[in-house]
Amino acid sequence: MTTGPVTTDEILDAAEKRTGLTRPQLLVLVAKSATVRHLATHEKYKDLFVLKGGTLLSNVYRSPRQSIADADYTYLDPENLKVPNLEEALAANGEYGFYLYPEEGQWSYENEMFDGKSPFHMKGIRMSRRPRDRELKVTVSVRAGEWLDRDGPPLIYRDPLLASDSSFPINGLTRNELAAEKLLGWCGKPLPKHLVDLAYLAREHHEHISHEQVAKFVRQKFEMEKGARRYRDAGIRSPADLVAAFTKPNKLKDLRNDWERFSSTELLFLPGELAEDADATLMKVENVERQAIEFWQSTLDLLR
């Protein structure tokens, strides 16, 4: 295994021009992808971590929305979902040019989820041309969960910010199972990213989506998760309740009213999204609403 730098200043310089992201944002992306690669190649734990969420969408399914905040995982051994096990899985001592000390980070446990915020040290990397005087923080969210669709094609994670081994196989959700999680996410906790991701799947991956399969996974996941507070708070007691929750007027109104802030601070799009047709770009809230609602109506109809 190489112990060279995890990235280089040359790679970061080029990425600043290509993506429009700042150097600190790029460094967090590097740290996150290096951690994902570490878990994907871990001799003991690689088969227990299954990637999902925005990181999977951006680095496997090529979404233009950059997910910087964290990496979300399902952990397939709930009997051993303990902090010591996760610290052992995450710890890296110089492999690929970085150090990760999860025992020095912060762990929180809420709603059967571990959120580990861990110090990450890189060799030879500077921020804004000045030596860094603080650590990078990598958030890895892990919950005991299901991996329902294991028959999909092999998945490859790619990140050109990594100086070596920038693509590698990974366990991750299929488009159908990911769509089911995003649909439940938008209905139960209406974060704008969930609807944007559903619109992206509709626009770019519709040929790979089975409404019947997505509806089946929604039912299965809801049965396992129906006791969650987010569903109780949203008045969702059965899969049929998701139909009204998907297009609930007040949350769509909130989305439109606050879109300018969302799109400039929380939804980080790559410059290529500007080249999309005016009636297709995800940078316009009306397009996001239309593409998501029109395409996923067929799935919702199956839940009635």
Could you tell me how far the N terminus lies from the C terminus, measured between alpha carbons in angstroms? 52 Å
Q: Which word captures the global form?
A: globular
Total helices: the number is 12
Helix content: 40-55%
Number of domains: 2
CATH topology of the largest domain: Nuclear Transport Factor 2, Chain: A
The string of secondary-structure elements, in order, is HHEHEEHEEEEEEEHHHHHHHEH
Low-confidence stretches: 127-133
Quickly give the CATH architecture of the largest domain.
Roll
Strand proportion, as a percent range, falls in 15-25%
Biggest pleated sheet: 7 strands, mixed
Radius of gyration: 19 Å
The number of distinct β-strands equals 11
Structural class: alpha+beta
Overall pLDDT score: 91
CATH-level-4 superfamily name of the largest domain: JHP933, nucleotidyltransferase-like core domain
Name of the top-level CATH class of the largest domain: Alpha Beta
